Amino acid sequence: MDCYTANWNPLGDSAFYRKYELYSMDWDLKEELRDCLVAAAPYGGPIALLRNPWRKEKPASVRPVLEIYSASGLPLASLLWKSGPVVSLGWSAEEELLCIQEDGVVLVYGLHGDFRRHFSLGNDVFQNRILDTQIFHTEFGSGVAILTGAHRFILSVNISELKLRRMPEVPGLQSVPSCWTTLCQDRAAHILLAVGPDLYLLDQSACSPVTPSGLAPGVSSFLQMAVSFTYRHLALFTDTGYIWMGTASLKEKLCEFNCNIRAPPKQMVWCSRPRSKERAVVVAWERRLMVVGDAPESIQYKQLTIQVLLDRLVLRRLYPLAIQICEYLRLPEVQGVSRILAHWACYKVQQKDVSDEDVARAINQKLGDTPGVSYSDIAARAYGCGRTELAIKLLEYEPRSGEQVPLLLKMKRSKLALSKAIESGDTDLVFTVLLHLKNELNRGDFFMTLRNQPMALSLYRQFCKHQELETLKDLYNQDDNHQELGSFHIRASYAAEERIEGRVAALQTAADAFYKAKNEFAAKATEDQMRLLRLQRRLEDELGGRFLDLSLHDTVTTLILGGHNKRAEQLARDFRIPDKRLWWLKLTALADLEDWEELEKFSKSKKSPIGYLPFVEICMKQHNKYEAKKYASRVGPEHKVKALLLVGDVAQAADVAIEHRNEAELSLVLSHCTGATDGATADKIQRARAQAQKK
What is d(CA 419, CA 412) in angstroms, rounded to the nearest whole number? Predict the structure, then answer.
């Protein structure tokens, strides 16, 4: 029996443990870990080592080496560090390595040592430098807390959306605290730090002293502190050798243990006991390891979801294994296989030893029309890797023009973007590209590009008509489009010019353009309008009233209404207004004035070119039957019946219709016969019809 229990060691009164090697680390470390900055990612993630950090005893000529290993020690990346002194290393929740420099610049690397981006922690950090940092993880993402050389704390809860918050000042803090950590409570991050025997909690607005519940007396300093992964529990190591364990609020003590060691530990972290809800604290010194337990967790949670597991496999480029897991778990394609294939494609475009054609072909053969895969996202990654031509080839497989165009513009392939936008038929997309091209190209090249794209040119003209009239004029000039130039100056003469001289000048320019376009009708009409404008200005000066901008007909009418008949007739002669039109204008104007005497004189001035039925109609419209009858007798035979009916003389209208033997006229008169009054007339018409039928 002894052979089965020989390798088990007691742990407290009721538990035993044994240590055995699961696997050996494959790395070949040439230096001790104590001489390196070390960061291990959670959940068995990668380990980062920065060899030869900046230490006074190291030669200045030795460049540090940043190395990344898997959890089993397999080398993943190695690179010479060429930037500034690094204060701290840490891993984000997305397994990105954060290298925080002394000047506040943070360089971000991928799992395989590929540089991702960099950002600054602000001018305050740059000026005062960094003394210490901590990287922490919350539901909002990965955050960073900084202690500057001015002994002030600065905090950001999410480095992906960096918002730096300067924490309140700690009274009397003149050196680095003996220990400090970040707590996350009530959806906010706080700083807990120790200054001698005192603990302070920093929140957004205040620095508050706090005291752990039930702490043994005699503590003059806190040497180490550790918060649990859930931020619910806290462990404190004091200079008296006691380990206090309780809630992170410090209001409840779970246990207190005297380890009889007063030297500060190298590390103190929380862990879970296997198959148990109990939490424990592991404390490590140079050659001693101690596990202190009895802190039950009331709520269990999943640390690793399927999506996080798949993300980690993808980061390690284990694409076939990730796809097999997706298929085994029957995950929806968009969440599983499609997402992994997209990651594979983004990795594929980084293989610069393969030609653009081969990479594009391989990606399309593998992905095809897989739902949930965006070729534009893959093309964007290719462009980010400096492979613009590959990005363009990949965009050919992207079915959505709205996704193609923005990336083409970003790659400065604006003309190709314009072609794609036009192919889509999306006018908003075309306008977006046009405005981008306008800002990118000089005016001549921009207009030349439009000339080769009729649809784009048409759309841009519509835009210019409402927004940029001068640009529209330049477009017409570029194309020698004299007809449209003439129309442009016609509109400009009314829209932009207020002075009569300016309007006439604009019209003259329009007339010249129409002559160049060989449109003599438009040119002559424009010249007539110029003459009319000058005449209208003269009439306003001489007669008063408003004439400017009236039409030719309205100008004549206004003169007649004002009693200026001779001027109206002269204007008609000058502009060759036909007699018929002039008679209509004068007839209407005099009737509106009810100047019946002048109307009668006008009717007798010469033979009416419009006949006399209009006189009858106008008088009746003004409800003047007396005047209408004067003209009814002068109406020609073809309209005599209609004129007599207008003035109400049904009997005479019947006699004329019978005399004309016109069936249509007889029917018209008959339709006007009403009641007993016109009974005799109706009988007369019927007899006339009967006699006509006998013949």
Answer: 14
Q: What number of helices (H) and strands (E) belong to the chain?
A: 27, 25
Confidence at residue 381, expressed as pLDDT on a 0 to 100 scale: 85
The structure tokens listed for 439 are 């800002």
Domain residue limits, the chain: 15-216+229-259, 636-694
Q: What is the pLDDT of residue 1?
A: 47
Give the architecture-level CATH label for domain 15-216+229-259.
Answer: 7 Propeller (2.130)
* Residue 21: C-alpha distances to residues 25, 72, 410 (Å): 10, 12, 53
Sequence-distant contacts of 398-401: CB under 8 A, at least 24 apart: 398/374, 400/376, 401/426, 401/429
Question: Distance between alpha carbon 219 and the CA centroid of its chain, in Å?
Answer: 59
Sorted by sequence, the CB contacts under 8 Å of residue 507 that are 6+ apart come out as: 489, 490, 493, 526, 527, 529, 530, 533
Q: Which two tokens stand for residue 312?
A: 């980690």
pLDDT digits (tens, 9 = 90+) for 266-295: 999 998 765 666 778 999 988 888 888 766
Whether 27 contacts 70, CB under 8 Å: no
Q: Determine how many CB atoms are found less than 10 A away from the CB of residue 75.
A: 12
Instruction: Count Cβ neighbours within 10 Å for each residue of 210-227 and write b for 16 or more, e otherwise.
Output: eebeebeeebebbbbbbb
Give the tokens for residue 662.
């016109």
CB neighbours (10 Å) of residue 122?
16
Provide the residue type at 281 as one letter: V
Residue 141 forms beta bridges with which residues? Answer: 138
- Reduced to 3 states (helix: H, G, I; strand: E, B; else coil), residue 500 is helix
Strand partners, 271: 280
User: What long-range pairs does 537-546 form, CB within 8 A, spacing at least 24?
Assistant: 537/500, 539/567
| 3-state secondary structure at position 273 | coil
| CA 158 – CA 531 distance, rounded (Å) | 74
Smallest CA-to-CA distance from 86 within 111, 69, 63, 61 is with 63
Answer yes or no: are the C-beta atoms of 268 and 283 closer than 8 Å: yes
User: For residues 65 and 50, is the Cβ–Cβ distance under 8 A?
Assistant: yes
SS3 242: strand
Intervals of the chain under pLDDT 70: 1-5, 11-14, 31, 52-61, 273-277, 294-304, 464-472, 474-475, 478-480, 496-498, 675-677, 692-695
Write the pLDDT tens digit of every residue in 231-265. 999 999 999 999 999 999 999 999 999 998 999 99
> 629: helix, coil or strand?
helix
Pick from 473, 484, 562, 490: which is nearest to 533 by CA? 490
| pLDDT tens-digit readout, 504-532 | 777 887 788 888 888 888 888 877 777 87
Judge contact between 234 and 207, C-beta under 8 A. no
